[in-house]
Here is the input.
Amino acid sequence: MPTVLFWPLDINHEVTNEAVEIRLWGKEKSGATSLVIAGLNPYFYLLPKKMENAQDVLKEVEGLQSRYIEIAKTEIVDKKYFGRPVKAIRVNCRTSEAMDKCSKLLGRLPSIKEHLEDDIRPATRYIIDNSVSPSGWYEFEVLRISRPDLMVDNVYEAIKQPKAVERLETPKIRVLGLSILCFSEKGSPNPAKDPILAISLATDPNKTEQLVSEGKNDGQLLKRFISRIRELDPDVIVGYGQNSLDWPYLIERSKKHKIILSVDRSGAEPHRSVYGHISVTGRANIDLADVSEEIPEVKVKTLGSVAEFLHVASRVDVDRFLNVETAELWRSTEKRKNLLEYSRLRAEVSIKVAELLLDFDIQLSNLTGLPLDQVAAAAVGFRVDSHLMMRSRELNELIPRRAEQPYIPYEGAIILEPKPGVHENVAVLDFTSMYPNLMIINNLSPDSFVGDEDLPPSEVVTAPEVGFKFRKNPPGFYKHVLEN
Here is the structure.
């Protein structure tokens, strides 16, 4: 079988003929844009209330298979749950929808304590099970197939589990800067009635084209935009505020004109996705407004402020028409030129900012297991969750259900009042990465936590003030992850 060296950029799933199909969109070493299609068997776990009764519980579940035909296979597996060995029943289902249904029904059995991992999305399931992290290189053994309906150079079917390949360089990625200009007679533009005046597309900091509306009917403008996106075929689309303004506006205006905004690589429309961002399947849509949250030095979050901080443009130039009503300016021939230049500049600056920040997001994507567009939009807690989920498999840990936790404040550091005056020979002592290092040093982890067990003081670490105790050995899950 032939092999292909592949760099996943985006991942999603489709249900075809009642089977789950995982789609990995990305780049080959040659620079070709490709799609690798892989199969997936959705599954979840049942934890018996009594581990010694696992075999009896398995027979009980097997007896229900005639009623729940969506169940494909059941078996007992040895796992760990918060570090403790458990006998879990793995239930394979035919589709993700069947898994949701069966986990809820079987989870109500009197003999079942918990049902786990049914809340993991199919794309994430594939990433965890195959140790495939986006934005990294993998060798796939494949079979070439034909899918002319998809906008890629090559389509493959994965035959075996991929192998990670150590390569530091990223493939050549086509980045497109996007900025739209909307009509506004008074106040913020409203997509229900206010048309798009111009769309600026930058493929390079010094190469920008503009699609300008003729009159107030932007239907033709939208059709030209769809055509240009398909021709330019970007891998990454960047802009500032496109998750909250540009894409929702484009989508709403397209609906008004009964136009399908088919700009993704599957021929479908952009859609709101898991972390509130707009997903453009097969491409990475990165809103630099999300990325700017990683720069605490930038207090006022605008494209101009970010650009000025990174020394790529002046804030005054980039933000000069940020909150203006465009109608009066658009009616003036001279001022219209200024508006168009403003839109062009924002697309070009988006490209320049992306050139400086994209490598960081690529590394973060590979570390967390979240595709580029998701890692930019996800809060830090979701990124940490994703990384922990990836590491759970290699440590054979079951993934607990995500649940809302109450906010519990904790006591901060001691702050000593300084003595007024001029001081010389001042020494500064800082504890670098204090919390992670404390967790490593003291083996603080959910699976090392000691509840009601009575252990010798020499075998535990006791947290001051609260009195919680943690085993010194063996190393806990968090310690493994943090040391890595």
